[in-house]
Hints:
- By secondary structure, the protein is of the alpha/beta class.
- The protein contains 9 helices and 5 strands.
- The chain has a 5-stranded parallel beta sheet with strand order 2-3-1-4-5.
- The mean pLDDT is about 95.
- BIS(adenosine)-5'-pentaphosphate binds near residues 32, 53 and 123.
Amino acid sequence: MYILLLGAPGSGKGTQGLILSRRFGIPKIATGDILRAAMKAGSPIGKEAKRFYDAGKLVPDSVILELIKSELAKPEAQQGAIFDGFPRTAAQAELVDKTLALRGQRLNHALLLDVPEEELVRRLHGRALQEGRTDDTPETIRTRLVVYQQETAPLIAHFAQHGIVHRVPGQGTIDDIALEIQRILGR
Ligand code: AP5
Ligand code: MG
């Protein structure tokens, strides 16, 4: 089963993705986590991504499409996965759709974590104090929210055409939201 977590920065993709990954015993693939590890390691991808990442802009598809291809090709991702933070552009969505279709698979569910903007900002400012992510500064948080609306939110319509979008009210405790997702997935 392939599940996509869609939602603005701070909506809980990483948090709920981890819970789902454990529940179903399938990997969570998060492009943001991969980029952070690459930046930390100073690898070529990390170096290329850094100026976009730190500005809260999307890292170009020229980098991300290769990354997605190699993640989807991994043996542990052949029977299912939780996608956190991608696909985020039309080109990424097309790549994911095509790659899975060639294997006789498809994206089964797109969970849209719907959280009001004030709550997103509150969470991200809270996380900035705890984790110090370089893109959790007030200005970059604002940019990320705008970039989400402009470049990623339009994908909701794309997945809705496939009839796989479920809106999840993303406010409440982490456990409440996990239960709601469980109810939506029926397992
Ligand atoms: P990415 O790492 O994907 O970050 P994001 O989309 O900005 O989202 P976050 O990770 O900030 O939030 P989340 O939804 O995972 O929420 P979380 O569970 O952490 O991307 C970062 C950057 O990398 C992008 O800006 C871009 O530059 C680049 N990038 C990544 N993927 C890309 C791609 N495919 N294409 C191009 N560029 C790409 O929760 C947030 C906080 O809230 C946490 O502190 C958490 O503990 C807390 N929290 C969670 N749930 C609750 C709750 N119910 N109540 C209270 N607090 C909660
Ligand atoms: Mg995340």
